[in-house]
Fold:
Amino acid sequence: MKKKALLLAGILLLSAMCACGKTDNADGENGNGVNNNISYSATDLAIYTTESEGETLMPSKFITMLGVDPSTVEPSDDEKLERIKQFVETDTMEIAEGDIDKPGETKKQNVIRYFKYIGSREPVINAKSITTTGIMPEDDNCSSVEEVIEAYGIDSENEEYIENEDENGNYVIKLDFKDLDTNEGTLERIITPKGSEPEASEVRYTLRFTIQNDHVHGIDAYMYF
Structure:
């Protein structure tokens, strides 16, 4: 199990590093201003520790991810990773899935269905290069709202993506996803027109960014099953 966990973590880290900084721009926009060239995958539902390359933060160690066995986040000898894990909340659920060793039968598996980075001085990062130190008041090492909008191709004028806005201008960017049946591990972001709500039966995952002072001060994700 430990070897499988380490292999998964390595694959996720490689995928995240390949995805960082590779979103396309306006050439792929449709009539509603949504960038159709941006792709989404399971790595969008994971977070990593960071390491500096010049002035740029890059993914380093896998922390946690929706839909994986909790054993993938078992203790390691990396002090920074273990320190950050203290500020990550997770919840699990038991699911039934097909047993590849016994065709036609199912087996039960415990998977992570929720995570939340509360925050510390150490930033975390996701596959779209969005970074945050959570509840820490400083904006250093926290991505801006504009970076989130660009990374996820959000149409800020015509799309419903803001919730829980308060009188101080703080709010949450809420993004919903569903699985793409044509390509395992690939997700499709659900675009919800302004003034409407997503079809609940379509939503498989929700990713949220807490916005304070126009910067990301928290990240959480939830899986529906």
